[in-house]
């Protein structure tokens, strides 16, 4: 008989647990903003020039995140936003590396030009005349 006194409490508790299980996650606004910021950062870093594949993948994942967000599929939107952020960060890093490699190559060419000028000039000025030989045989 005691069970029947607690039945309404158990039904209410079960309903609360059921509703809590069905509740969806909140919109991933922070994840979307972070992904967008990283995409902008990658574009600023010239990822379109140095790593268009990863930048394109990031943009595609961000578009998927926007679609999932519009469909109120917040878990999927958060996952896509995280993937977009990671791809954009990779694109930004590769763009930075590409720019640095380009600067190194340019500086190496300048160094080689300077070295050849210095060696060419120093080679002419620094040469001592050929030693004079005596007219006799060795």
Short description:
With 138 residues, the protein is mostly helical. It is 82% helix and 0% strand. The N and C termini lie far apart (132 Å).
Question: Key terms for this structure?
Answer:
138 residues, mainly alpha
Structure, explained:
The chain is an all-alpha fold and 138 residues long. The protein has a domain at 25-119: Substrate Binding Domain Of Dnak, Chain:A, Domain 2 (Up-down Bundle). Helices cover 82% and strands 0% of the residues. The protein has helices at 2-22, 29-44, 47-50, 52-70, 74-126. The N and C termini lie far apart (132 Å).
List the total number of helices: 5
Spell out the helices and strands N to C. HHHHH
- Structural class, from secondary structure content? mainly alpha
Report low-confidence residues grouped into runs of 5 or more. Answer: none
Question: What is the end-to-end distance?
Answer: 132 Å
How many β strands by DSSP? 0
Question: Rg, please?
Answer: 35 Å
Tertiary shape: rod-shaped
Give the helix proportion (percent range). Answer: over 70%
The CATH topology assignment of the domain at 25-119 is Substrate Binding Domain Of Dnak, Chain:A, Domain 2
Q: What is the second-level CATH architecture of the domain at 25-119?
A: Up-down Bundle
Strand content: under 5%
Mean pLDDT: 83
CATH class category label of the domain at 25-119? Mainly Alpha
Sheet of most strands: none
């Amino acid at each position: 008989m005691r069970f029947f006194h607690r039945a309404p409490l158990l039904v209410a508790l079960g309903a609360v647990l059921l509703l809590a299980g069905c509740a969806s996650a909140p919109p991933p606004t922070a994840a979307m903003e972070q992904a967008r910021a990283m995409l902008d950062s990658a574009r600023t870093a010239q990822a379109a020039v140095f790593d268009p594949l990863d930048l394109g993948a990031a943009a595609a994942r961000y578009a998927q995140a926007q679609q999932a967000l519009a469909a109120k599929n917040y878990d999927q939107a958060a996952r896509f936003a995280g993937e977009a952020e990671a791809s954009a960060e990779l694109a930004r890093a590769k763009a930075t590396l590409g720019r640095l490699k380009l600067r190194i190559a340019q500086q190496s060419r300048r160094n080689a030009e300077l070295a050849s000028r210095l060696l060419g000039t120093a080679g002419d000025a620094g040469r001592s005349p050929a030693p004079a030989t005596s007219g006799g045989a060795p």
